[in-house]
Hints:
The complex is a heterodimer of chains A (102) and B (439). Chain A has helices at 39-49, 77-80, and strands at residues 2-10, 23-29, 31-32, 35-36, 59-60, 63-64, 68-72, 75-76, 92-97. With 102 residues, chain A is α+β, with helices and mostly antiparallel strands. Chain B has 439 residues and is of the alpha/beta class. Chain B folds into 2 domains: 33-310, Rossmann fold (3-Layer(aba) Sandwich), CATH 3.40.50.720; 327-431, 3-Layer(aba) Sandwich (Oxidized Rhodanese, domain 1), CATH 3.40.250.10. Chain B is 40% helix and 14% strand. Chain B is built from 18 helices and 13 strands. Chain B has helices spanning 3-34, 36-40, 50-55, 57-60, 66-74, 87-97, 130-141, 159-163, 176-189, 216-219, 232-235, 240-258, 306-310, 333-342, 354-357, 377-387, 401-412, 424-431, and strands spanning 77-81, 101-105, 146-150, 168-171, 193-199, 202-208, 267-272, 279-283, 330-331, 347-350, 365-367, 392-395, 418-421. Chain B has an 8-stranded mixed β-sheet with strand order 3-2-1-4-5-6-7-8, sandwiched between helices. In chain B, helix 1 (3-34) crosses helix 7 (130-141), helix 6 (87-97) packs parallel to helix 7 (130-141) and helix 6 (87-97) packs across helix 12 (240-258). Classes of the chains: A alpha+beta (102), B alpha/beta (439). Chain A: Keywords: Cytoplasm, Isopeptide bond, tRNA processing, Ubl conjugation pathway. Chain A: It holds the Pfam family Urm1.
Amino acid sequence: MSITVDVEFSGGLELIMKDKVRQATVSLPATADGKPTTVRQVILYVRDNLVADKPQLFSTENTVRPGVLVMINDSDWEVEGENDYQVQDKDKVLFISTMHGG
Amino acid sequence: MSTSERIQEIKARLAKLRAEELELESELVKLEGLNQREAAHVVKKDHLAPDDIRRYSRQLLVPEIGVQGQLKMQNAKVLIVGTGGLGSPCAMYLASMGIGTLGLIDHDVVDNSNLHRQIIHTEAARDVPKVVSAHTSLSRLNSSCRVVVHDVLLDSSNALDTMRGYDVVVDATDNAATRYLINDACVMLKIPLVSGSAVRLDGQLTVYNYNGGPCYRCLFPTPPPVETLSNCSETGVLGVVPGIIGCLEAMEAVKVITGKKQEEKPNMLLYSYTSQPHFRSIKLRPRKPSCAVCGDAPSITELVDYVAFCGSGPNDAAADLHILQDPSQRISCRQYSGVVHSGQPHVLLDVREKVQFDICQLPNSLNIPLADFDKRQQELTDIVAQANGRPIYALCRRGNDSQYAVQYIRNKLDYKECYDIVRGLLGWQADVDSEFPAY
């Protein structure tokens, strides 16, 4: 059993991805070690497979780096349990880097 | 006098008048600063004067604003931090709409590279303090708006005193350290914070510290790593993008002042030129009870050193890195100029991104961006083979990436006749050719 998740990058994160992709559909097993797949596994998948060459610009300490917001189906992941949120098939996960310019 | 002579005469006269206007405004700003006690005494309006009714009639007709909304705007004090790309349109619209008191903070002067987006400033105001230039534009737009200028670099020693007394603060700054500083000061002073940012073709907008919603620190408790910080001078920005976000900041400030904002749940608005749809609103968490500054038991109860906290301050240009330890692997721009003049055969390898290379380049340079070195390694190998013992000089904008390029060619391609040009094209412009365009 596998699930697919739509991932999207915003606020400049798209620039550190391979081919500067803004969107991708990733396929993950529905469970890992007998437990449901969480958004942490999506983050690690993106770090290992989609980030071009500087993984630390996306992820540190097995989660997103400081300054990145994660939105699950357009809601702040804080409301959903952050890293431990169990991803569902067809979920949309949006990664937003905070910007400082103006 | 011919028509074209008269045109020239008029243009010269206007240029002189514009310069004179700025001089007078500069003196006015100083005198008004000395006169602060009188200026601070503002009588609250409880009705609109006939002139105000005529002037603001089109927005008085909007039911969500009406007379009560207009009176709230005319009695409101809004502080805009930064009169750049975001602050320009925000200040102009707030003044035009009839905000009673507008505070402006900026410690910069107007630069030529500001003008494509900082529309409150004019060509005549180049090198003039931004607050004077902004004061000039705003007094032309609406002389009844009281503009209070603060020509200071906002830091933890002056932020609370400067920001105290305002009803709304608009963050229109361009760096992480000042954003944390403004957030913490707004939490301590209990002022809603309208926050916008814009880089390249994207923008973000949020109202923090308002109506049970989060503060900036609730969302970003830890500052991002220094290498992920970017600003307009490094990554670029299309002029209208901060314009879009700055206008929306003015809109949010009006909603906070009139009270309409209370009906909304906390959200962040994202704008992107590329995504479809261009605007998206995402739901944000409420205030975090564990937040270090706005939480139930805050650990930050006074302003801290935000430059140390973020590892980078408001005026930090990209650092000059020292990656190559051996000085014999680097030559100065003047030395490289000597190489060119002596006709010594060599290869000049420009490692900037193509978009930058297209802006300007030195004659006979090859362009392979550093980021593409792995992908285009075969081309590099061919260049090394053709150089065949002759020196390869690596060049970039400020002399950082070029050092990585030298390391790559020396170590990975094992070609030792490779040297870095110190300070890159900025050095070339400063030391060799002042006509070379700087960007």
